[in-house]
Amino acid sequence: MTNRICELFNIKYPIIQAGMVWCSGWRLATAVSNAGGLGLIGAGSMHPETLLEHIRKAKLATDKSFGVNVPLMYPEIDRIMEIIVQEKVPIVFTSAGSPKKWTSYLHDHNIKVAHVVSSAEFAGKSEKAGVDAIVAEGFEAGGHNGREETTTLVLIPSVRKATSLPLIAAGGIGSGQAMLASMILGAEGVQIGSLFATTIESSAHSEFKKCVLGLREGDTHLMLKKLAPVRLIHNKFFNQVKEAEANGASVDELKTLLGRGRAKKGIFEGDLDEGELEIGQISALINEIRPAGEVVQSLINEFNESRSSLLNNSNYSF
Amino acid sequence: MTNRICELFNIKYPIIQAGMVWCSGWRLATAVSNAGGLGLIGAGSMHPETLLEHIRKAKLATDKSFGVNVPLMYPEIDRIMEIIVQEKVPIVFTSAGSPKKWTSYLHDHNIKVAHVVSSAEFAGKSEKAGVDAIVAEGFEAGGHNGREETTTLVLIPSVRKATSLPLIAAGGIGSGQAMLASMILGAEGVQIGSLFATTIESSAHSEFKKCVLGLREGDTHLMLKKLAPVRLIHNKFFNQVKEAEANGASVDELKTLLGRGRAKKGIFEGDLDEGELEIGQISALINEIRPAGEVVQSLINEFNESRSSLLNNSNYSF
Fold first, then answer.
1. A120: closest chain B residue by CA
2. Structural domain count, chain B
3. ipTM of model
4. Which mean pLDDT values do the consecutive 10-residue runs of chain A (318 residues) have?
5. Taking CA atoms, what residue in A is nearest to B315?
6. What are the strands, taking DSSP E only, across A129-240?
7. Is A226 part of a structural domain of the chain?
8. Whole-structure pTM over 0.95, yes or no?
């Protein structure tokens, strides 16, 4: 019996690098895939022609599986899907929307589909839509986030009960120990964002990466819940949002405050004051910038050490 | 080598039943202690003389270790501590305040002290204050909660790095699998609230228990963050708070809305509309009312099955 996530995506380790706006282009995705995980190009921050370029570069940089993450609310979604099919990308992770419309289309072109959810209810709906795997992402994750605010520790067993599909845990996972913990809770693999956002191959600005290394617990909070909840690092922009929300700002007022292009400004251009700085809670435990391949290998080493230590540790004998 | 939590508290299993307002009197605490865990009487909802009565009844109902949970902001704290010392209660869990003032006093009377924190920073401060063990409680927990909003999955490894003291994980733990997961992350035991709040021996009102059994993911949220953050079940009172907060209600307005005695009204008297209904996220996975001793035993059975399955499962071999 082999691991279902490894089998489904034809990878060595069930470690998926999350598709992340302004971080995960072809360089990061192929570094992860070459190390035995599954790299995802994040289409969320790309014009269709930019995505096309990244897919073509990825194909030159690896002969391993890689995929594309597609937020389903994306305005040019038709063109994005056309490119993915035309370029024969083997795997698509969909998020932020219903997988009903696109799953069978992707299947018709022999593309595997995983869908990201934040609740057991949507896991069930995704299974009905025919997806091949579920990513269940908890409250502690970076970026956009579910309104239920369910944490990974609670979400994984809950989704495990709701679906028999291969299950990937996301949110708060930054070590092989956390990977093993998620798998004990019912997941068969993990999707990791923050830890890869701060690798050498991430296209995030070096100022953004440095900022993340300095974070401590409690330095991110889920904000803009009246629009679409997003986990943000405390900075000047964050404080403006916090004040506006404390004073009861309306949806329109928040939209005006947010404006456009703030994630790019913060993550890609390194404007730490005005940017929307997205990262997960686990950033509090990230202290160095490493090559992505090394990150994959340490996760597996920690996982294996942690698993063996369970056997020989009388701490665990009751 | 034995488990440090078991050794410290002289218990068979490192399972602590959380001290919970209006749920955990002598009946629940001794049921847990008699089953091999550590039961705590929750002093937070008791007048000093009521606590005295509960301690005396507990002594008659068990010859095992039990403890008292004391929120340090409690108005009659001096009298509470006096009773604890006089009755020779062997273990005190302190929360909601600084452990500086009381730890050495309790130690002088041979009482073991554990302190509840929601961040690595406060774990370090508690260690300096001399406590014997740390409880690290994540965002998913019921009742009052840290402002950092760090989830258990992130908090445990973070606190593990900050202190070498025996460490107890709390928040989101409702199964032996979650117990094992927490221990892989660095904890040596678990504190469990919600699962015991719904046992037969819990003094919560039967309407409250029934309400909890019906909850699904996303049916609790952390509210009243301008006062003291507390996780509440969605009900009429919750909706009033939600609306007030969305409109920018001030601290004073929220205090007026909250009034006094709402937790008692909801949890103990079963008023599901007007009461402040406190429970953790894991309530979404609680489906039956059982005896507390049976809960302890299933946790251990699940823990052991889960641990053995790690050895023989090729899902986990990389």
1. B217
2. 2
3. 0.97
4. 92 98 98 98 96 98 98 94 98 95 97 98 98 98 96 98 98 98 97 98 98 97 97 98 97 97 98 98 98 98 92 78
5. A3
6. 133-137, 143-144, 167-170, 189-192, 220-223, 230-233
7. yes
8. yes
